[in-house]
Amino acid sequence: MPNNIVFSELALELQATAREIARKHVLPGAVKHDKEQKYNFEAARAVAAAGLFKTFIPKEYGGHGAGVLALALVTEELARADSGFGVAFAVNALGSFPIILGGTEEQKKKWLPQIARGDKFVAFCLSEKYAGSDAGGLSVTAEEDGDHYVICGEKKWTTNGGVADIYSVFCVTDPTSKSRRISAIVVEKGTPGFTIGKVEDKMGIRTVPVVETHFDRCRVPKTNLIGGKPGMGFKHAMMTLDYARPGVAAQAVGAAQGSLDLALVYANRRQQFGAPISSFQMVQKMLADMAMKTEASRWLVYACAAAIDAGMADTISKRAAMAKCFATDTAMEVATDAVQIFGGYGFMEDYPIAKCFRDAKILQIYEGTNQVQRMVIARNLVKEAEGLAYLRPYLPTEVQKTYKGTEIRGHAAAGASSGG
Ligand SMILES: Cc1cc2nc3c(=O)[nH]c(=O)nc-3n(C[C@H](O)[C@H](O)[C@H](O)COP(=O)(O)OP(=O)(O)OC[C@H]3O[C@@H](n4cnc5c(N)ncnc54)[C@H](O)[C@@H]3O)c2cc1C
Predict the structure, then answer these.
(1) Cβ(136) to ligand 1 under 6 A?
(2) Residues catalogued as catalytic
(3) What is the band of 1 on the pLDDT scale with cuts at 50, 70, 90?
(4) Neighbour-count burial of 276, counting CB atoms closer than 10 A to its CB (0-12 exposed, 13-18 middle, 19+ buried)
(5) Is 73 found in the same domain as 31?
(6) Residue 3 belongs to a domain
(7) pLDDT for res 366
(8) Best residue among 207, 365, 370, 374 to mutate for probing ligand 1, ranked by most atoms within 8 Å of CB
(9) Contact of 73 with 7, CB cutoff 8 Å
């Protein structure tokens, strides 16, 4: 069968498998798992058995090498059934990307096949109590001691913590360096000195654990230093976030679609004034806007993921930030309107729509807040504006002279030399 014009045959197969697993293993228990704050191991085993963890692992290391677009399709389907399970899946990619993008051959061979099989789950430990948006301000240290690093300190908000077996931990290895301060080190579950601390009691995504991870003189072999060279951690973290943001954006698309699905079914069944509420224009406007924005988010995410798969490195940061920001703002908006459509029932914890609303909020916060995404987008736009110099003749003369930073300095010097 020929490839679909946009998606590979493999990507569509993985999407179909994810949809089936989502309906059979994720959706039915989602509310119960949310109430009990329990991880859905049964669904995770089904995902592993179906080979879905192989989606984002390169072929050479036991994966499908299906790329970021396929990862987005799979995540979307799982999140549509339960946003928490969507991130429980996607965070495996987030934690694996430092190894995939920056690891040595030995490290890839050691860890990636186990992740592909679903034998080992992964987590990503960047954030700390005092270092969230400012990821450069980390304080967890890793000091050299012979053939080992000794890690000390605490990480905050580790998604999948406790469930995961492999942790990509970002540590300060050179406090004196500005550009090479941080390194990423793999810490495996069971390493002496590594423990799970506080398990967070969250507003939403209660079906995946988020915990503090503690490192008390935790000794790990130097062979676990990702890439084998210290000081590459900040670069690995930023590359990882660019690759992983379409994943969280896809989670948002799934979450938005899940809210919309429930709202549609409800609006067709709920009767007021002798007619289904879906026949009222104001409800229709809400439904139409929810659908339009969800679809716009979906294609922004797919375009970003496709750009990553095509190796369009220059554009990735901006695209990933746009997709993450737009899709997650949409998910929150759609969940809010879905609750509105449910009326009073929407406010009750008796029905999953309340869970959709609670689950949506975190999307605007983690993997870089949406304020941070807007900063990334704006920074890229300002840089790109240099390439729009051909528009300069259309600007007021005064502004033409101050169009570029270099020209501002040139203009000032000229002014000074002319003596005013
Ligand atoms: C449920 C959950 C799961 C998470 N999972 C993980 C995980 O698996 N791994 C991990 O490493 N981290 C994880 N995080 C951490 C998450 O990425 C951070 O919470 C996020 O990056 C924001 O950091 P912060 O909470 O410290 O907020 P802060 O950085 O303190 O920001 C607070 C507010 O100030 C705004 N702000 C900050 N700086 C600026 C600025 N320069 N300009 C404008 N506004 C600004 C922010 O947008 C925000 O609104 C998780 C967090 C949560 C809550």
Answers:
(1) no
(2) 367
(3) very low
(4) middle
(5) yes
(6) no
(7) 97
(8) 365
(9) yes
Can you name the residues that pair with 42 across neighbouring β-strands? none
Residues 224 and 279 in one domain: no
Name the residue at shortest CA distance from atom 31 of ligand 1.
133
Q: Are residues 90 and 75 in the same domain?
A: yes
8-state DSSP, 24: I
Of 198, 230, 262, at which residue does a domain stop? 230
Q: Is any ligand 1 atom within 6 A of the Cβ of residue 132?
A: yes
Is the residue at 30 inside a domain?
A: yes
Q: Whose CA is nearest to atom 29 of ligand 1?
A: 133
Whether residue 408 has pLDDT greater than 80: no
Range of the domain at 46: 9-121
Q: Same structural domain for residues 367 and 349?
A: yes
Residue 159 Cβ inside 6 Å of ligand 1? The answer reads yes
210 in contact with ligand 1, CB cutoff 6 A: yes
Question: What CATH number did the domain enclosing 94 receive?
Answer: 1.10.540.10
**pLDDT digit string (tens) for 67-109?**
999 999 999 999 999 999 999 999 999 999 999 999 999 999 9
| Residue 101 CB less than 6 A away from ligand 1 | no
Tell me which amino acid residue 118 is: G
Q: What is the pTM of this model?
A: 0.94
Do 99 and 32 fall within a single domain?
yes
Q: Atom of ligand 1 at shortest distance to CA of 91?
A: 8
When divided into structural domains, the chain yields a total of 3
Q: Which two tokens stand for residue 256?
A: 């938005």
Span between the terminal Cα atoms of the chain, in Å: 74
Three-state secondary structure call for residue 64: coil
Average pLDDT over residues 9-28: 98
Nearest ligand 1 atom to the CA of 200 is: 1
211 lies in the same domain as 309: no
Q: Is 365 in the pocket of ligand 1 (CB under 6 A)?
A: yes
Residues 6+ apart with CB under 8 A from 82: 22, 26, 27, 30, 33, 34, 40, 207, 258, 359
